[in-house]
Amino acid sequence: MKQKSSKGPSWCGSRQRRALHTPYDAKIAEYAHRGHLVPPRAILKNAGHIAGIRESGLVNIAVLDHVAEHIRAGMTTADVDRLVFEKTKELGGVPAPLGYRGFPKSTCTSINEEVCHGIPSEEITLKDGDIVNVDVSTIYKGYFSDSSRMFCIGTVNAEKRRLVDVARECVERGLAEVKPWGFLGDMGQAVHDCARAHGYTVVREVGGHGVGLKFHEEPFVSYVTKRGTDMLLVPGMIFTIEPMINMGRAAITLDKANGWTIRTEDGLPSAQWEIMVLVTEDGHEVLAY
Ligand code: MF3
Ligand code: CO
Questions:
Q1: How far is CA 283 from the centre of its chain?
Q2: How confident is residue 23, by pLDDT bands cut at 50, 70 and 90?
Q3: How confident is the prediction for the chain on average, in pLDDT?
């Protein structure tokens, strides 16, 4: 639908255009006045943005469904990358990771002790018993989406299966806390509490992010925050919930040779699910999973 004219000076006399204001400006200003961290206006999406980002999310979901259908033992992670590239193209999208800050592939494939940002390779073959995260991000008509899933290859032992299941439960517990005029820390604490209740740890240095108009926007989404703290949640915010849950210690290392891949320091497995969520007027809507 066409919007009312966005031309002309805004009511507050700033040089910004009217469209940059939201119906929630006054309420947000009150929270800011009380000392809360509030979202910058640039990350609050309007109805047009949301429609576009929702479509992008549907492409992302379809690509992950395609991966789910074909992934199996014996495949290389480069094969998985080709599945992502071809399906994304077929649906009219562009893989967001390809060329992003020099990233060489269309998706990230992180196996077992790899926490995130594994680089697909012809040399890496998925084998029976592996757990692997496939992280898919799509640009569709200029709008960004991002989500990831875990896949169990063949027969996975109970210990690793439990890690995968709990990582998913952590995301769901966090998601349940996402509602307008709550705080990002409500979500973060729910994730952390869930991981700890199962004897697992949460990676601190890497987190989720705002997404939609760009690949990575504010805020940084942590899972070691406390209820009632961190950024105020306002309708129109879109961000990822993508905690990395470690079976052992939380400490991580960066692969210095490729500059990307993060692994657990203790070599124990890590699992991650990623969803993309919109804060709505009465709760939330999942845009990709
Ligand atoms: N979902 C991942 C993230 O937001 C995707 C990373 S793609 C890469 O971190 F190119 F940065 F590796
Ligand atoms: Co992400």
A1: 18
A2: confident
A3: 94
Contact 206, 110 (CB under 8 A): no
Mean local confidence (pLDDT), 149-165: 98
Each residue's pLDDT tens digit, 45-60: 999 999 999 999 999 9
Query: Ligand 1 test: best mutation among 119, 137, 139, 215, most atoms within 8 Å of CB?
Result: 137
Model pTM greater than 0.70?
yes
Q: Is residue 180 part of a domain?
A: yes
Q: Which atom of ligand 1 has the smallest separation from the CA of 98?
A: 10
Structure tokens at 203: 């990676």
Q: Which of 117, 147, 273 most suits a substitution to test ligand 1, by most atoms within 8 Å of the C-beta?
A: 117
How many CB atoms sit inside 10 A of residue 15's CB? 6
CB 119 within 8 A of CB 169: no
| Top mutation candidate among 77, 85, 94, 100 for ligand 1, by most atoms within 8 Å of CB | 100
Instruction: For residues 240-258, give the mean pLDDT.
Output: 98
87 has which bridge partners?
none
State the CATH number of the domain containing residue 117.
Answer: 3.90.230.10
Which ligand is closest in space to the CA of residue 117? Answer: 1
Locate tokens 């950024």: which residue? Answer: 231
| Distance separating alpha carbons of residues 22 and 42, to the nearest angstrom | 11
Nearest protein Cα to ligand 1, atom 7:
97
pLDDT at 115 over 60: yes
CA of 101 to the centre of ligand 1 (A): 10
Residue 282 domain flag: yes
Residues of the domain holding 253: 44-288
* pLDDT value of residue 267: 98
Q: Give the total number of structural domains in the chain.
A: 1
Does residue 5 fall inside a structural domain?
Answer: no
User: Rounded to the nearest whole angstrom, what is the distance from the C-alpha of residue 139 to the centroid of ligand 2?
Assistant: 13
